């Protein structure tokens, strides 16, 4: 396996749209933050310290040979081009922080891209598991299996009172960050989302954009995650998040039905106008493309469009990002050229889907 495989394969296994409630919940993610005992934490260490951590972890990779870590691949950030790192960020396989700022940063990736272990990010080790649909419990089960394999080979920084020690105080305890990525056009169109976000925050959860903290909710896609780990068990965190997510799913479905009952002609017009734009455009910016893809995705989920798979929409969400477009072009593109190439790619992909 090589870096090209991870870069050229647009549709990761976790984007296959086969999980529970996948019409609304695109993915479930579990992330475990861990640090090594007797090493300075990344927030204060030097380049030499980070090199020692990476070398230490490299030595244990041959021993990570059981399910689900068999055939895992190491990618070192300093050996990748900026464009290659951007593609990995767009596929949610690494964080923007690891791509831009880490010292001796690296990532261990599973072949199906469900598992990503970031090294020397904000913590020494960040285990990430991504699954399609609402599968937080299964994702945590896999993450714990990965964690157990690693812990057989290393000593973690752990305190009997506080739990796992992390660079950020909000991660101390279980080190668990659970999140779901949700497609919520109904709540946005009925203007309920702006009211819902403060309520979610009051429950100890946080709402972010498609690429996490500081990012925009492109295409009506939001990430919802727990904010605090200290004093809560893993089961408590998942119970609270699952409860809120299930309520949001119900509200999103109700919002879509309300729009269908009160404004069906306008809804159909919106869906098919967006499909027309995607099918015929010659220039399209990423923000407009994301909105049109969102409209078409809702049209598929609500039964208005029957000859396009929602998996194609998942694929195009990734393929139309700036990094992917430039990766396929073989190098950097001007913004205008990206917009032209994006439009051409969408047209061709939809043509193939509708004529297969």
From TrEMBL:
PANTHER family referenced in this protein's UniProt entry, alphabetically: ARGININE KINASE 1-RELATED, ARGININE OR CREATINE KINASE
HAMAP family the record matches: Prot_Arg_kinase (MF_00602)
Molecular function terms from GO: ATP binding; creatine kinase activity; protein arginine kinase activity
Keywords, alphabetical: Allosteric enzyme, ATP-binding, Kinase, Nucleotide-binding, Transferase
Leading EC class: transferase
EC number assigned by the record: 2.7.14.1
Swiss-Prot/TrEMBL catalytic activity: L-arginyl-[protein] + ATP = N(omega)-phospho-L-arginyl-[protein] + ADP + H(+)
Role noted for this protein: Catalyzes the specific phosphorylation of arginine residues in a large number of proteins. Is part of the bacterial stress response system. Protein arginine phosphorylation has a physiologically important role and is involved in the regulation of many critical cellular processes, such as protein homeostasis, motility, competence, and stringent and stress responses, by regulating gene expression and protein activity.
Keyword Ribosomal protein found: no
Protein name: Protein-arginine kinase
GO cellular component: extracellular space
Family the UniProt entry places it in: Belongs to the ATP:guanido phosphotransferase family.
Domain Phosphagen kinase C-terminal as annotated: residue spans: 24-255
Residue ranges of the motif RDXXRA motif of the pArg binding pocket involved in allosteric regulation: 338-343
Residues that, per the record, bind ATP: 27-31, 92, 126, 177-181, 208-213
One of the protein's GO biological processes: phosphocreatine biosynthetic process
Species the sequence originates in: Fervidibacillus halotolerans
InterPro entries: Arg_Kinase, ATP-guanido_PTrfase, ATP-guanido_PTrfase_AS, ATP-guanido_PTrfase_cat, Gln_synth/guanido_kin_cat_dom
Regulation: Appears to be allosterically activated by the binding of pArg-containing polypeptides to the pArg-binding pocket localized in the C-terminal domain of McsB.
Gene from which the chain derives: mcsB
The organism's place on the tree of life at top rank: Bacteria
